[in-house]
Design goal:
Elements: E1 4-10, H1 28-35, E2 37-44, H2 50-57, H3 83-89, E3 93-99, E4 117-118, H4 128-137, E5 145-151, H5 173-189, E6 197-202, E7 211-213, E8 218-220, H6 225-235, H7 243-265, H8 272-279, H9 291-294, E9 295-302, E10 309-311, E11 315-316, H10 320-328, H11 343-346, E12 356-359, E13 371-375, E14 379-384, E15 393-396, H12 412-427, H13 440-452
Parallel strand pairs: 1-5, 1-6, 2-10, 2-11, 3-4, 3-5
Antiparallel strand pairs: 2-9, 6-9, 7-8, 12-13, 13-14, 14-15
Length: about 450
């Protein structure tokens, strides 16, 4: 019998808040899982947004090769083989608890449990955690199974119970929510037999945390999650004909909020890293690919995985599924992918480090300044999506891990080399076959659902 697979994706979870000296949350369960598995501390997402990240994770391709984006969000090209197809051919049964948006994207398989879909903002402590555990305990999951759990607890806006809303559990609401999640992660993993189950824990992307806590300064501009949730729910009740007016009001209020925040911090001595976190808003037109947005946790444990191992080589989330297949003993005949198996690294061997391609998600209602770029263990490079000469950023990650100093102008030779690597990735892409299943109405459904969930 093939092993089961539990795939836990925690939306918006930053790597530096999962493990390391920058975290202030209380996470005994996560810490124990790291000790019991192999943790990759330099895993990089292919995007700062969920849909692009999903398309990369579940196909092993850079998102721009999947057809997910072309004059609007689309479902992936039907000619592309997802890893779910490979697992299905090997007899796997699929179960999930996943946000409602997913049915429109063409990425995911048919789930066996009929109650798989949930509202995007349903948290573990609000009943989702209990449902996840009940399915594990039900004995209704036919083996071998693949169980995908997508957790939204850290997604904006963050809501907290009084129990966890104090400094013992973290210096920000974001980290206090991690402490609350940790309890449920422990409960869920206690129901899993690690001898015959491979567990993978990761994230789709990171987030700005609007709080600064250091020896010289403590300031928190995180929003009231409960209030924001009520406002969002009321906004969803507005009739479609009035949606343009709603959008204009939103952007008007965002400009006011931005000015107020700027007035609060303009006289403070802040690093660029601290300032961009405090000033970030959903309505920001200019997008970036800083590590707080794309550096994510990646942990393997259980079946065929050794314990207490940390790998510091840069890897990518598009490497996850090639690795899963290798660990559970399924041959991957699809060679036209960008990801690679990390099993050699897990076994203590060496493989070449590949540059991580990244791209920002784009706004729906206004034109955004989007970026593409690459990351290596030494440098981060990104620039305007359409013009290689505009908005060029280059950071020395070894000497400037918080990406405070853009050195593109003083190190043009390095920027040129990084652009050449980026161009090689972009040009090494065959045109996608014509997709007979594309439907403009589906694009509208996807984008309407994204707007309902708070995307703009």
């Amino acid at each position: 019998m093939k092993p089961n697979v539990l795939f836990l994706l925690i939306d918006t979870f930053r790597a530096d808040k999962f493990f390391g000296k920058e975290k202030t949350s209380y996470t005994p369960n996560i810490d124990l899982l790291i000790k019991n598995g192999v943790y990759f501390d330099q895993a990089i997402s292919c995007s700062d947004g969920t849909i692009f990240s999903w398309s990369g994770i579940f196909t092993g391709l850079h998102p721009f090769k999947t057809g997910i984006k072309s004059q609007g969000y689309k479902k992936i090209n039907s000619n592309i083989t997802s890893y779910f197809s490979i697992l299905k051919n090997q007899g796997y049964n699929f179960y999930s608890y996943i946000p409602s948006l997913t049915d429109s994207l063409g990425i995911f398989p048919e789930w066996k449990n009929n109650d798989y879909s949930f509202d995007y903002y349903w948290n573990l402590s609000e009943g989702l955690g209990t449902k996840i555990i009940n399915l594990l305990e039900s004995k209704k999951m036919n083996e071998p199974w693949f169980y995908y759990i997508h957790v939204e607890d850290l997604h904006f806006p963050i809501t907290l119970s009084k129990e966890f809303n104090n400094d013992k559990f973290g210096k920000s609401k974001y980290e206090r929510k991690i402490s609350a999640m940790d309890v449920w992660i422990g409960k869920i993993l206690k129901k899993v037999n690690l001898k015959n189950t491979l567990v993978v824990i990761t994230a789709d992307h990171g987030a700005y945390i609007k709080a600064v806590n250091n020896a010289n300064l403590k300031i928190n501009l995180e929003v009231d999650g409960e209030l924001q949730t009520h406002v969002r729910n009321l906004g969803n009740l507005i009739p479609k004909p009035l949606q343009p007016l709603k959008s204009k009001l939103f952007f008007f209020l965002e400009r006011i909020r931005k000015k107020r925040k700027y007035q609060k911090i303009k006289d403070l001595e802040l690093t660029p890293y601290e300032k961009r976190a405090l000033l970030w808003q959903r309505s920001d037109v200019e997008h970036f690919l800083f590590d707080e947005l794309v550096h994510v946790p990646l942990l393997f444990l259980g079946y065929n995985v050794k314990e207490n191992t940390k790998v510091s080589q840069q890897v990518r989330i598009i490497d996850i599924f090639p690795t899963i297949l290798d660990i559970i003993g399924i041959q991957n005949n699809n060679k036209d992918i960008d990801g690679q198996s990390l099993l050699p690294l897990i076994e203590g061997k060496q493989i070449p480090e590949e540059p991580a391609f990244m791209e920002t998600h784009y706004l729906l209602e206004i034109e955004s300044q989007d970026k593409i770029g690459i990351r290596t263990s030494q440098f981060k490079f990104f620039r305007d999506t359409n013009d290689p000469t505009k908005l060029v950023h280059l950071y020395d990650l070894k000497n400037d891990p918080f990406e405070n100093n853009n050195i593109a102008k003083i190190k043009p030779d390095i920027a040129k080399k990084m652009e050449e690597i980026l161009q090689e990735i972009l040009q090494n892409s065959s045109p996608l076959p014509e997709d007979d299943e594309f439907d403009e109405e589906e694009t509208k459904i996807i984008e309407d659902e994204l707007k309902r969930l708070g995307y703009i």
